[in-house]
Amino acid sequence: MNYRSSVVGGVVAAVALAAACTSSTGIGDPRPFSYIDVRELPASNATGLAPYAAAIFVKDRVSGVIPSYALEEGCNQPMQILGGAATDVPLSGANLDPGAVKMSLKGTADPSVREVSLLPSGVRNGLLQYSNATGPDLHAGDDSITVTAAGTAGGFPAFSIKTSSLPHFVAQPVDDSIVGQGIRVLWTGLPATTTTRMQIALQYATAGNSSPNMEMRCIAFDDGDFTIPRLYLSEWQNAGLDASNTPHQAVLSRFNTVGANVADGVAVIVTRIDTTIVK
Question: Is the pTM of this model over 0.70?
Fold first, then answer.
């Protein structure tokens, strides 16, 4: 069994956004909306960790944000992994110009302000993304992370949103076989007062597929212990017990969601750290 930290494409970002955004049913005119996904990853100089952001600034029908601490535990039935990185992100509006966008870090271990610009980096699914190619050193779990946009007339309004970086965790092996009521997942948890949640995704291939094409997702309290109910696990168990070594993996993602009103719009920032267990 191989353990590695990884970026999970846009899957976690999409799920976090879907969980964070309240329903747009019955909402009036589109309004400014920003989604900022900050991943804690190895720094480009390979000497530590750095935050890498992907931000969008659009106009769409979003009523508000559900913070991570308000999310209850639960699982979804397995669903197909779609090809696009943001295919289940509920956005359709036009891109807006945010002006200069910057991300800064500051903490008790290093009280200096470490700043980097987020620059246009390409269009995915019609959404213009702003990101940083390099990042300042990150003291995970200690640094605060602040993203500011200067704003432009007729574009996205100026704003500043602040959140915390996340402490790392260690995940234990995830079983292939159902035992008792399901499959127990263990990791290094946080105190009950934490505002974070843990997303657990079991990804596996079904017949005729050479890579995972199905995924079952759960949201759990970040206390280090969650049992996935057996009713969601038959295909995962089949993949794990298949003599042909069907590709499958477990992806655990600690995340924290913070939202803020931005003039007549909404901004949300999600910090996350992902670990993949390849079976």
Answer: yes
